[in-house]
Amino acid sequence: MKKNYIVNTTLLLSLTALMGACRNKPAQPVHNAHQEAATDSNIIQLTAPVNARVIGTIPVVQPRKGTRTYPLQLQGIVAYDTRNKTSLASRIAGRIERLYVKYNYQPVIKGQRIMEVYAPELAAAQRELLLIADDGNPGLLAQAKQRLVLLGIRMVEIEQVLRSRQILYHIPVFSNSDGYILEQSAPVAAAGPAAMPAASAAGDGMGGMNAQSAATPAPALSSPAATPILLREGQYITAGQPLFSIYQANSLLAEFAMTPQQASRIRKGTRLQFHPTTDASDSSTATIGLIEPVFRNGQNFSIARVYLGKGSYRPGQLLTANLPVVYEGGWWLPAAAVTQLGNKSVVFRKEGPSFRPVVITPTASVGGMIQTSTDITGWELAAQAAYLVDSESFIKSNQDVQP
Hints:
By secondary structure, the chain is α+β, with helices and mostly antiparallel strands. Among the domains are: 44-67 and 330-388, Beta Barrel (conserved putative lor/sdh protein from methanococcus maripaludis s2 fold), CATH 2.40.420; 70-84 and 182-327, Elongation Factor Tu (Ef-tu), domain 3 (Beta Barrel). It has helices spanning 2-24, 33-47, 120-135, 138-150, 155-164, 260-263, and strands at residues 54-55, 60-61, 64-65, 68-80, 85-89, 94-99, 106-108, 113-118, 171-174, 179-183, 236-237, 242-247, 252-258, 271-276, 284-287, 290-296, 299-309, 318-327, 331-334, 339-341, 344-351, 354-360, 362-366, 369-372, 381-382.
């Protein structure tokens, strides 16, 4: 009886202590999905790798959409108009006995003696002329004279042969136009790119599909050089061989080099203002007559051609041109807000207290601004994207997260 009392008393005390502990225990908070999502989002921002999300408090900029007009500066050179040139070719095979021109772009006038040629065929034709003249047949004599004319001998020399009864072994070749003479094997003025100039602040150097690492300047155009000609006295030439080109001095043009991206925004007939590089006060206006894509010396660029006609400019003179270029549509943001990662252009979009890198597609870089075709309406972007890039430029951008 005594043992049962002790057991019951012990159970009663244990039950009383347990009930008291339950009454003193604090109430547990009720969890909901919204609080869990907020907690998880904050944790993600703090635990994301530094190459995929950067936490910081730096100034931000907002892109603007619209059409803008910027001046474009181009470098060019005065060259000869290749539409108004004449060619000087050999009418008969022979040997050069005397050469009176010494260097390319040497000025010549019409009727000036260029060289003297010895040709056995011409000597034989002159002997036939003398024999026909002795026979007294007017019809055959006229045909013999016509043959010599077609072979390149002027009527003055033919009459001289008939009077003196002496054969002319050295037949002179004369210039058929006024201008500047150029050997056929020599490059034309402004025919090749020279050193690369510095990129203009108003240049358009971004690619259409992927961004370029920097604005690519168009190559400069080389001025004509008065190099010695390669033809030499004693050299043999063939019938019909082109020897020289003569460019008329009163027909000039200006060629301005530009990148293919810049050329895509310029049209034929666009008016531009240009002046000599050394004298900005002597300005002129003209229209673009031709835009020609060119690939020379491994470089791809375009040339805008302006026909000058007869003026105060001289071949080889350097020019600077300015023309307005309209950039339609797209979103604009400062160039400092974009950083280059190889062939990608990346901006840092502000999301709460952190910035996330996003790839954009730039279409133009001009005047310290970048135009992009990526819809970035309402975004807040880091004003200085370079500040958020680590020293190794290891930035991981999610290509799938695009607007």
